[in-house]
Design goal:
The protein is mainly α. It has one domain. 78% of the residues lie in helices and 0% in strands. The protein contains 3 helices and no strands. The longest helix has 34 residues.
Amino acid sequence: MDVSAVSAARGYAALRPATEPEAGTNAAAGFQALARDFAATLRAGEETAKTAMTGGADPHALVQALAQTELAVETAVTVRDRVVEAYQEILRMPV
């Protein structure tokens, strides 16, 4: 197995808890934590990209940060789409 594949698998595994609800917490606290994690992931990706542009980061770190950012954005878009879909379904319900 390629070293980069192992590194990518570890990165995806590290982000997996962001998509799973925390036991024993209310939904608002879980959502706030998810939003903080999402913002931190985006911020880390931006910092790595800035560092790579000035020559301070290796290309592997940049690709890994971009992959983590892409995964976080795709997850956020999926959650948004599901929320909008549920809201539209509620609006179609007869009263």
